[in-house]
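User: What would this chain look like folded?
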Amino acid sequence: MTAPQALISSDDRDKVAALQWYAKSVMEGLNVGMHRSPHKGVSVEFKEHRPYVRGDEVRMIDWKLFGKTDRFYIRQFEEETNLRVTLLVDQSGSMKYAGSRVLGLSKHQFAVRLAASLAYLFTGQHDAVGVATFDTKLRTYVPPRSRPAHLYELMVQLAAAECGGETQLAPVIESLAAKIGRRSVVFLISDGFDHASSLLRSLQRLRQAPNEVVFLQVWHPDELDFPFSTRTQFRSLENPTHERIVDPYNFRAQYQRNLERFRAELEEGCKQGRISLVPCTTTESHVAILARFLQQRGAK
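Assistant: Here's the prediction, encoded as structure tokens.
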């Protein structure tokens, strides 16, 4: 089992701390935070100032206060709230794959580190973060909270997660819909190895709640370019009794066609459902992936 503190290095913490997530729509939360709330009333009137941060609307700057202090402050006219975030981390058998060509993390090790970086990002913004791990069914669930000590609890759960079992993404996601609720952000961190149509329907159900849904699809490079050149025995990581000796020369073309079809169906379905699909490979920096995604998201 990985030590909780090993999931994110001090260097990565510094890099994540420089990132920032802004809700694109009004959010429903429990605590005062940095995201707009759908609940309006007396707080529609001026409430207080807060320091200007990159991304704020320039028209909201209090220029009179700037003249007195030489600093930018934003006038707040409506209640702001914290964001609720749920991280769904796949721990099915297929996520155990680490390959032999590339020395590095397994897909699952990569996934929990990616989840740890997200947890650090959102708790640093005083947002409420929760984690669910699953394979064919829900294994652990930690509800979203925003207490400072909650981050360590999330890290402990992520570090303790172990791969096993087959994959049933769609039923698990649908069973979590009631827990997740409305107007939050949901991250699915998985290889997505399930029937594409079922997976897309379950993600669309979350999207319609409404929630913002981000699918961080984790790949090992071997799965993308199929580098095998000699007769190879393949054994299922989800069901060890399933194994087959394959001649890669005769099998590669069909594998790549199936892979392209699967990826194209997911890409088109996510596009139609306004779900963010973010391909990730285990050789990439998980912090760099988040930084790139946030930059692209902010540009839309």
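The chain has two domains: 7-21+83-299, 40-78. If you want, I can go into more detail on any region.
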